[in-house]
Amino acid sequence: MNYKLFYANESAAQGVHVILEELGVHYELIKSTIDRSKPRPTKQLEINPNGWVPVLMYDNKGMYECAAIIIFLCDRHSGANLAPKPGDVTRGLYLQTLVYFSSSLQTAFQTSYYPDRFVDMPEDEASAQKRGIRRLRETWTVIDDQIGNNDWVLGKNFSAVDIYLFMLTTWLSPTQGHPNISEFPNVERIAHAAMSRPSIRHIYADWISENS
What is the mean pLDDT of residues 84-111? Predict the structure, then answer.
């Protein structure tokens, strides 16, 4: 199977890139950007008029939204065991956590990095940004508590959720006012463990080098 991934560094597309590596499937990266002032590939905008990445093409079809793409790929290639199968006792938690990451955590990041998208007046941006930072602390605390003493987010088995978690931790920026990952010891422990995966070490090589 051949996939095409519209891609930009420091975006959610990196998490999908890791998934594709883990699955061992053939894929092509199509360079895009997260800078909305710059042109993006026409086909990407046809599939996702919002302009975001990741956008995945497969079988002459296309889809967007990171969590949806991950669920789709892991179900389509279930032999890779990156997701609990329907009927597994952890399937509900798997779906819940992916959606929580995409809806709550990513929205908190967006509010902190791009407060202008959430308010009408420039003078309100600082307040929105502060609320985004507080929301980051709230949402990461929920995930840290959920993990508890688990080996991985869902329990004993590594999954796509751990890849998504690692990706999100790379967006934390204390210089931006974000909480430090050390405030969430269970999250930090799993992110560190995930970093030993060859796929993550390859795709995040520059980030790992800069943050070691």
Answer: 97
